[in-house]
Amino acid sequence: MDLDDKIHKKSSSEGWKERIFVPTVIAGVVGGATGLVSKYRKICGLANISTTYAANFAIVTGCYCGAREFVRASRASEPGDLINSAVGGFGCGALLGRLQERYKKSWPYSKA
After folding, report:
1. Residue 62 falls within a domain, yes or no?
2. I want to staple 17 with a disulfide (CB 3.0 to 4.6 A). Which of 21, 41, 64, 107 is the partner?
3. What is the rounded distance in angstroms from the CA atom of residue 61 to the CA atom of residue 49?
4. What is the pLDDT of residue 6?
5. Each residue's pLDDT tens digit in the chain (112 positions)?
6. In sequence order, what are the residues at sequence separation of 6 or more whose Cβ sits closer than 8 angstroms to the Cβ of residue 62?
7. Quick one: which H or E segment has residue 39?
Protein backbone atom coordinates (compact mmCIF):
# COMPACT_ATOMS: atom_id res chain seq x y z
CA MET A 1 0.00 0.00 0.00
CA ASP A 2 1.60 3.24 -1.07
CA LEU A 3 1.13 6.73 0.35
CA ASP A 4 -1.75 7.66 -2.00
CA ASP A 5 -3.77 4.61 -0.91
CA LYS A 6 -3.27 5.50 2.75
CA ILE A 7 -4.37 9.08 2.19
CA HIS A 8 -7.49 8.19 0.19
CA LYS A 9 -8.53 5.25 2.35
CA LYS A 10 -11.66 6.02 4.35
CA SER A 11 -11.41 5.82 8.10
CA SER A 12 -13.76 3.54 9.99
CA SER A 13 -15.53 6.51 11.55
CA GLU A 14 -16.69 7.95 8.22
CA GLY A 15 -20.32 7.34 7.47
CA TRP A 16 -21.32 6.63 11.07
CA LYS A 17 -24.35 8.89 10.72
CA GLU A 18 -25.73 6.71 7.94
CA ARG A 19 -24.93 3.48 9.79
CA ILE A 20 -25.89 4.36 13.38
CA PHE A 21 -27.61 7.73 13.82
CA VAL A 22 -30.14 7.63 10.95
CA PRO A 23 -31.46 4.10 11.74
CA THR A 24 -31.78 5.04 15.42
CA VAL A 25 -33.79 8.17 14.63
CA ILE A 26 -35.99 6.25 12.18
CA ALA A 27 -36.58 3.56 14.82
CA GLY A 28 -37.62 6.24 17.30
CA VAL A 29 -40.15 7.64 14.84
CA VAL A 30 -41.48 4.16 14.04
CA GLY A 31 -41.71 3.41 17.76
CA GLY A 32 -43.68 6.58 18.36
CA ALA A 33 -46.04 5.69 15.54
CA THR A 34 -46.42 2.21 16.96
CA GLY A 35 -47.37 3.76 20.28
CA LEU A 36 -50.10 5.73 18.53
CA VAL A 37 -51.84 2.53 17.43
CA SER A 38 -51.03 0.48 20.54
CA LYS A 39 -53.88 -1.14 22.41
CA TYR A 40 -52.42 0.23 25.68
CA ARG A 41 -52.81 3.89 24.67
CA LYS A 42 -56.14 4.20 26.51
CA ILE A 43 -54.76 2.63 29.68
CA CYS A 44 -51.37 4.38 29.92
CA GLY A 45 -52.13 7.55 28.00
CA LEU A 46 -51.18 8.36 24.43
CA ALA A 47 -48.13 10.50 25.23
CA ASN A 48 -46.69 8.03 27.74
CA ILE A 49 -47.07 4.95 25.57
CA SER A 50 -45.76 6.69 22.43
CA THR A 51 -42.74 7.98 24.32
CA THR A 52 -42.07 4.56 25.82
CA TYR A 53 -42.30 2.79 22.48
CA ALA A 54 -40.14 5.41 20.76
CA ALA A 55 -37.46 5.18 23.45
CA ASN A 56 -37.44 1.38 23.45
CA PHE A 57 -37.21 1.14 19.66
CA ALA A 58 -34.41 3.72 19.58
CA ILE A 59 -32.45 2.00 22.38
CA VAL A 60 -32.64 -1.42 20.74
CA THR A 61 -31.72 -0.06 17.30
CA GLY A 62 -28.87 2.05 18.66
CA CYS A 63 -27.49 -0.91 20.58
CA TYR A 64 -27.73 -3.17 17.52
CA CYS A 65 -26.11 -0.64 15.19
CA GLY A 66 -23.34 0.06 17.69
CA ALA A 67 -22.65 -3.63 18.19
CA ARG A 68 -22.62 -4.20 14.43
CA GLU A 69 -20.13 -1.36 13.95
CA PHE A 70 -17.96 -2.68 16.78
CA VAL A 71 -17.83 -6.08 15.07
CA ARG A 72 -17.11 -4.43 11.72
CA ALA A 73 -14.21 -2.47 13.18
CA SER A 74 -12.89 -5.55 14.99
CA ARG A 75 -13.01 -7.68 11.86
CA ALA A 76 -11.86 -4.85 9.55
CA SER A 77 -14.60 -5.73 7.06
CA GLU A 78 -16.99 -3.82 4.84
CA PRO A 79 -20.17 -2.18 6.25
CA GLY A 80 -22.55 -4.53 4.40
CA ASP A 81 -21.07 -7.82 5.67
CA LEU A 82 -23.77 -10.22 6.89
CA ILE A 83 -21.55 -11.73 9.59
CA ASN A 84 -21.26 -8.29 11.23
CA SER A 85 -25.05 -8.08 11.43
CA ALA A 86 -25.43 -11.60 12.84
CA VAL A 87 -22.76 -11.20 15.52
CA GLY A 88 -23.94 -7.67 16.34
CA GLY A 89 -27.53 -8.86 16.70
CA PHE A 90 -26.51 -11.75 18.94
CA GLY A 91 -24.38 -9.47 21.10
CA CYS A 92 -27.09 -6.82 21.33
CA GLY A 93 -29.71 -9.42 22.27
CA ALA A 94 -27.44 -10.90 24.92
CA LEU A 95 -26.68 -7.48 26.41
CA LEU A 96 -30.27 -6.28 26.45
CA GLY A 97 -31.45 -9.65 27.76
CA ARG A 98 -28.91 -9.42 30.57
CA LEU A 99 -30.16 -5.93 31.44
CA GLN A 100 -33.68 -7.37 31.77
CA GLU A 101 -32.45 -10.16 34.02
CA ARG A 102 -35.13 -9.54 36.61
CA TYR A 103 -37.66 -11.03 34.23
CA LYS A 104 -37.44 -14.81 34.14
CA LYS A 105 -38.42 -15.14 30.47
CA SER A 106 -35.37 -13.19 29.29
CA TRP A 107 -32.86 -15.36 31.17
CA PRO A 108 -32.51 -18.13 28.51
CA TYR A 109 -31.90 -15.54 25.78
CA SER A 110 -29.16 -13.69 27.66
CA LYS A 111 -26.85 -16.66 28.20
CA ALA A 112 -23.89 -15.84 26.04
Report:
1. yes
2. 21
3. 18
4. 47
5. 554 554 445 555 677 788 888 999 999 999 999 988 888 888 888 888 899 889 989 999 999 988 888 888 888 888 788 998 898 889 888 888 777 666 555 555 545 4
6. 20, 24, 27
7. none
Cα distance between residue 83 and residue 90, in whole Å: 11
Task: Please indicate, yes or no, if residue 61 is contained in any of the structural domains.
Answer: yes
Q: Is the dihedral of CA 37, 85, 14, 62 positive or negative?
A: positive
Number of domains in the chain: 1
Residue at 12 is within a domain: no
**Amino acid of residue 104:** K
- pTM exceeds 0.85, yes or no: no
Q: What angle do CA 51, 16, 12 make, to 5 degrees?
A: 150
Residue 47: C-alpha distances to residues 31, 40, 60 (Å): 12, 11, 20
Task: State which residues form the domain around 106.
Answer: 18-110
CA distance 31 to 60: 11
d(CA 4, CA 9): 8
